[in-house]
Amino acid sequence: MVDHRIVLALKLLLLVLFFESTFEQQQQERLSSPIERAALLGLRSTLGLRSRDWPRKADPCSVWNGIKCENGSVSEINISGFKRTRLGSQNPQFRVDSLVNLTRLKSFNASGFYLLGSIPDWFGQRLVSLQVLDLSSCSINNAIPGSLGNLTSLTGLYLYDNNFTGMIPSSLGQLVGLSVLDLSANMFTGSIPVSFGSLRNLTRLDISMNFVFGSIPVGIGMLLKLQYLNFSNNDLSSSIPAQLGDLSNLVDLDLSFNSLTGSLPAELKGLRNLQRMLIGNNMLGGSLPVNLFPVPSQLQTVVLKSNNFDGAVPDVLWSMPQLRLLDISGNNFTGMLLNASLNANTTTAELNISQNLFYGGLTPILRRFGFVDLSGNYFEGRVPDYVNDNASLVSNCLQNLSNQRSLHDCTSFYTEKGLTFDNFGLPNSTQPPARENSRKSNRKVIILASVLGGVGLILLLIILLVLLLFCIRKKGTTTQRGVGVGPVTPVPSGSSPPPPGVSIDFSSFGETFTYQQLLLATGDFSDLNLIKHGHSGDLYKGILESGIPVVIKRIDLQSQRKEAYLLELDCFSKVSHPRLVPLLGHCLEKENEKFLIYKHMPNGDLSSSLYRKTNSEDDSLKSLDWITRLKIAIGAAEGLSYLHHECTPSIVHRDVQASSILLDDKFEVRLGSLSEVCTQEGDTRQSRITRLLRLPQSSEQGTSGSLTTTCAYDVYCFGKVLLELVTGKLGISASSDAQLKEFSEQILPYISIYDKELVIKIVDPSLIIDEDLLEEVWAMAIVARSCLNPKPSRRPLMRYILKALENPLKVVREENSGSARLRTTSSRSWNASLFGSWRHSSSDVAVIPAGSSARPEGESSFKQSGASNSQGSGQNSGGDHSSSHRRHSREIYPEPSDEQDVERQD
Ligand SMILES: *[C@@H]1O[C@H](CO)[C@@H](O)[C@H](O)[C@H]1NC(C)=O
Ligand SMILES: *[C@@H]1O[C@H](CO)[C@@H](O)[C@H](O)[C@H]1NC(C)=O
Ligand SMILES: *[C@@H]1O[C@H](CO)[C@@H](O)[C@H](O)[C@H]1NC(C)=O
Ligand SMILES: *[C@@H]1O[C@H](CO)[C@@H](O)[C@H](O)[C@H]1NC(C)=O
Ligand SMILES: *[C@@H]1O[C@H](CO)[C@@H](O)[C@H](O)[C@H]1NC(C)=O
Ligand SMILES: *[C@@H]1O[C@H](CO)[C@@H](O)[C@H](O)[C@H]1NC(C)=O
Ligand SMILES: *[C@@H]1O[C@H](CO)[C@@H](O)[C@H](O)[C@H]1NC(C)=O
């Protein structure tokens, strides 16, 4: 009886379980909507997915990889890690139109799946139920459409590691449900949208590794849930807003590798949960607030290196209980080490206080660190045994050690502090015998060195002379040119240069196209598609199968030097900058012809778009307005400035002229003609020597011969481009030396810093210019003239030219009062105030925090010009500059010099 019941109950249970599971199967595991099924199949074919992952016949919900369904609808798609079919991978594109029919889709993850193209505009309008969008590492490019701001259900937006350009749309600030926003490792420019202050649910915000500039919006301080904040590796130049201190949940803060200024606000002590504080490699200064690190503290990592901090280090910093890494190297910190011993069992912590001004004896506090770098300070006394062998102690004033500072250095440092130096522990004579010997031998070494150095210098000069002659000879015979130049192996500053002569890895850049594909794209290289016979190859228009318009350079190796395309490819593989024309791929399969495939630039090049036919019947020409011309000049200067100053070794373009300045649909500059590039010969000192050698013969023209391998040559050519922009006389920049001489004689006399009106005589008559703009024109003319200085050493550096063009009024107004040479400014606020003038809209310009900056004047002009520029990109948007100029007239304007300034290094 009892048994019976149990059996019955069991049977019932089984039955229920069975029903439930089949119910589940029907309800959840089968796709019910035919529309969604069709959509998935559509996606499968446009993305080229394999039947292994998504078998056509099977039910997507139950069988397909990476699909999840809810109530018979597709709720999640994860194609990350998928491979495409062979057909699909030939033409990988961002074609996901079918997604619009998956109306219940909550998550789309394509991380790592190659989606060449841009995010479609309709994403924002149609995928409204989307909660998670992960498009990281998909090689997506172009700007993010502002419409993404409509996806208000989003909680996670992952767009890192792509090639996005343009500004970060401020509409993303509407995504108030976002918890994770990761835009890192792209090429975003512009400033951080102020609207981000509304993303109150963010726990993670990452904009690192972009080209974002301007300030950190105060509003970030309102993101109280934030745990991770990373703005590192950008160009942010404001001070750190005190409001950041409100982020009491923050665990990670990384602001390193920017240009942040000002001091650390004491309010940062509010970061109670901070474990990692990375603020190294900025331009921060001042002393650390005493209470910056309250105990108890979770801090594990504190990196303040390579700033301008001074003063003492707060005592608590040495004794943070959780500390694992303290790196404050490369500042002006001073004081003595805390004289205390801690019973911390953590002896693995690392301490780097090198290159500061610490002094006094070593103390037991060092016991708690497993690795210490104390080099480059003024520590004195004996080295205690608890300082272990792998500690770095060079360049101090320590006893019984080699590689210490000289007695003189140490004594004068301590004397200046009103202290006595222990004289390396030796009897109190002025010159300890041991040291004196070494000083004497030092002197001998110095004499020997200078003799050898003199001989070396002469040898060097001879070698350089030979090289010079060699270079000139090479130029004569075009077929051999470039042999000695070698492959360009520049690296963006920061990484160490690779060994010379590294081979080119073709797989690392662009796609490989087949010749067949190119024939198809260009209609068998039909003459109809020929754009022009360029000097490094013929340029053809083409349309890839995918519909992408491209420009194809056909290089005939029988008439071109062989190295040129390799140089160019190598260049593209090493440098990447939004101001260089994007190389999409190459086709090297034919022996005698090589092909490079570039992105098509809708507005051609400057030489062809300075004037363009209007659509009307009468064949009249419309010329570019002044604002656009100035924008083009700035864009080109940015590109060149990148090549000259941000690549090590510097890259010389060598073919700067109007036809090398390509223009995209928004007239943003993309430098082309990169087949002539080479690294600047020698380093600065050498080139100065070569300049010396050159002086006698180069007094007049200064452009020919091997001079073309110096940055100054680019500057010269750029001067011609500027003249062309000012005067509208086509062809100046392509002219020969003789023609240019003629042009110069006609034009240069009208460029004077003392007389604005003169310039009117040479200004392009088709420009409509009011009084304000005339000053800008005048300024550009002056810059052009200084670029055309016959003496290469007197030409300004590209980076100063860039600054001058960014704020032209500064050039002329300062000129009037002072010396006759081009002057520029290093003011960051001035810099920032100009960016709004042409980069897209200025509604995104962030506002500098009130009350936390040391430069209120800079702020106001920053805001002001942002506002004025938003009103119009028309002919008179320069109108507001005057006021911003006056605000800054008291600042210091360093003159451009031949010295290469100290570059920002890591
Ligand atoms: C599935 O549908 C049922 C009934 O319509 C509903 O109650 C449930 O919330 C739905 N589940 C989801 C995840 O949409
Ligand atoms: C997405 O799919 C890939 C490949 O099938 C898989 O390895 C990965 O774990 C999935 N990721 C998630 C978050 O489901
Ligand atoms: C979405 O579904 C409708 C109805 O079946 C269909 O007409 C349309 O083409 C589909 N859209 C896309 C982009 O596949
Ligand atoms: C997307 O898929 C990748 C790979 O499986 C995974 O690492 C990542 O976390 C996923 N993204 C999201 C937002 O879940
Ligand atoms: C960006 O584009 C360059 C060249 O087009 C390419 O080599 C690189 O891999 C791309 N980066 C990413 C993250 O897709
Ligand atoms: C989506 O965003 C765009 C641009 O931000 C806007 O113009 C449009 O009105 C929005 N559409 C909807 C449905 O919200
Ligand atoms: C000016 O801003 C641009 C864009 O961020 C940056 O590249 C440049 O270094 C800035 N110059 C100075 C002097 O701050």
Describe this structure in words.
By secondary structure, the chain is of the alpha/beta class. The protein is built from 21 helices and 38 strands. The strands form nine sheets. A 14-stranded mixed beta sheet has the order 1-2-3-4-6-8-9-11-13-14-16-18-20-22. Strands 15-17-19-21-23-24 form a six-stranded parallel beta sheet, covered by helices on one side. Helix 14 (711-727) runs antiparallel to helix 16 (771-787). The structure holds 2-acetamido-2-deoxy-beta-D-glucopyranose (7 copies).
Q: Outline of this structure?
A:
The protein has 21 helices and 38 strands. It is of the alpha/beta class and about 900 residues long. One 2-acetamido-2-deoxy-beta-D-glucopyranose binds near residues 98 and 100.
Question: Which residues sit in consecutive blocks of at least 5 with pLDDT less than 50?
Answer: 22-28, 430-445, 473-503, 683-705, 815-906
Q: DSSP strand (E) fraction? A: 5-15%
Mean pLDDT over the full residue set: 77
CATH architecture of the domain at 604-905: Orthogonal Bundle
Based on helices, strands and strand pairing, what is the structural class?
alpha/beta
CATH class of the domain at 604-905: Mainly Alpha
List the total number of helices: 21
How many β-strand stretches?
38
Main sheet record: 14 strands, mixed
- Strand order in the sheet with the most strands: 1-2-3-4-6-8-9-11-13-14-16-18-20-22
Bound molecules: 2-acetamido-2-deoxy-beta-D-glucopyranose
Fourth-tier CATH superfamily name of the domain at 604-905: Transferase(Phosphotransferase) domain 1
In percent, how helical is the residue content? 25-40%
The CATH topology name of the domain at 604-905 reads Transferase(Phosphotransferase), domain 1
C-alpha end-to-end distance: 85 Å
Q: What's the shape?
A: globular
- The gyration radius over C-alpha positions equals 32 Å
